[in-house]
Amino acid sequence: MTKTPNSPAIKVCSMLAAAMGAMSAPTVLSTGVLSFLNETTTAEDSEDKLLARTKANTLRMMSKPITLEAEELPLEDILNYISTVTEAELEPIWIDDSFDALGMDPGTLISIRVDNAPALSVLERVLKRAERIEGIGSEYTWQLSDIGTIECGPKTALNEHQRIELYDIADLILVIPDFDNAPDFNLQSALSSGGSGGGGSGPFGGGGGQDVDIEPQGERAQKIIDLIESTVEPDQWANAGGDGASLTVYRTSLIINAPDYIHRQIGGYDFWPSRLHRVRTSGSQRWIEVKPDPAMRKSP
Questions:
Q1: Contact, 273 vs 296, CB < 8 A?
Q2: Ordered alpha helix ranges (H), 141-273
Q3: Tens of pLDDT along the chain (300 residues)?
């Protein structure tokens, strides 16, 4: 499944096909990394490439291994430490002065010990611990903002920052008919007819005249929609009563309006190496996980 407009990106549609399960699609495109080699681009393309570089650089900084030993330290101090040692800009979504439930409490005391682990993994562990302690009823996660920083906080708050992506699924709903009614070839009959001066039966017999049962494209597209909505953040979709994402079909494309953390789980990141994407499963849920770059081994 390709996502547009991001040419000349090669979308990680094969990862989506794996994440969504076997859809019996005849073929999928290759995975790859966004190419920055084409210099004949528009100003808008150049801005998109610059933003892609910024986001990739943020993930590289968050790939640095760090050591964290915290004993009843405020959540705000821990996130400030992660930002300082990685030089990555974090944007935590804090609870406001009216104690709105759509934010984290900066004073939540966290105890955690992690030795030489990627900062991104440490951030995820800290957020998960804060989620359990605060218990506001919303899961905590992170996502890349539209300027390349890392936003982190409750999913209900991250849902306010949505964008529209167009995913081409033509390669996933294309059906190549399996013709199992081919005629039989009888060489003996052909030779016999030729020897008697013609007029006999031809070498082909049987087959033909049967309808090939092909599933309509609309039904195949609906299966992909059902798989996405049931395996990637199932509680966040509008069809399930959530406010995080919505999905519509236009011809052979899916138009998805969702926050970055949902787009990331559907198709990964074009600007991040495909080898650093992994299909994860938990029960009936399946999603794509973005992994830190192991090349960033040197501790800060």
A1: no
A2: 155-158, 170-173, 187-195, 217-231, 260-267
A3: 656 544 333 344 455 555 555 444 333 333 333 333 344 456 767 999 999 999 999 999 999 999 999 999 999 999 999 999 999 999 999 998 555 568 999 999 999 999 999 999 999 999 999 999 998 888 999 999 999 999 999 999 999 999 999 999 999 888 777 666 667 766 776 677 655 555 555 665 665 555 556 778 889 999 999 999 999 999 999 999 999 999 999 989 999 999 999 999 999 999 999 999 999 999 999 999 999 999 987 544
Q: What is the CA radius of gyration of the chain?
A: 26
Going from the C-alpha of 192 to that of each of 65, 183, 185, 186, 200, the distances in angstroms are 79, 19, 13, 10, 8
Single pTM value for the model? 0.77
